[in-house]
Amino acid sequence: MEIRKPLNIDNFWSNNEYYAENYVEKPLTDEMIAFTENKLGYKLPQSYIELMRIQNGGNPKKEYWYNENAKENEIRIIGIAGFFGIGSNKSNSIFGKFGNKFWFDEWEYPRDLGIIIADTESGGHDMIYLDYRECGKEGEPKVSVCFAEYDNKIHVLANSFDEFLAMLVTDQELDNFFG
Q1: Homologous superfamily of 15-178 in CATH?
Q2: Is residue 106 over pLDDT 60?
C-alpha cells in the first residue's frame, strides 16, 4: 500500500475560468460561516472551513476520490466536479441556483443526511455530502456520496473531511494506480 503525503491545501485549487464564474464565492468571513451554520442548522468541520478560507469553492487539482483498499463490490473512484462555495452569489454554491435547495427540491436528494458540498462528474446523478447522521448537527461529520440513480443509495467515503481530502488524487496519480 502506498503511503500518501498529507494534502497541502495551500495548493489545492485549480485555476479554471468556468469554476471561477460558477463556484467560487467571495472570500469566506466569520459572518458567512455563522450565517451558514445558523441557516442550515449544522456546525461546519474546521478543516472544511480552513479549505474554504483559502478559496471559497471551485475545482480541486486532485479531482478524484480514490479508495485503493476498496473490495470488489465497493466504490473505488468518484470524479469530483467542484466544491460549492459558501454563499449565494454563484450558481453552484451552497445557497446558489444549483445549491442544496435545488438538489433537495428538484432532484429529491435527502435533506436529513446533511449538507451537499460538491457535485461530481455524473452531472447531478450523485452528490457529495457532509454526513451528520451519526454525529448529530454539532459533531464531526463523515463524507458520503448519495446516488440519485440508485434510489438515493448512500455510501460513506470517509470518516471525516480530512480523511476525504487525503483520499483525493490527480488524473496522473489515478493512472499510476492502474499502471
Answers
A1: SMI1/KNR4-like (3.40.1580.10)
A2: yes
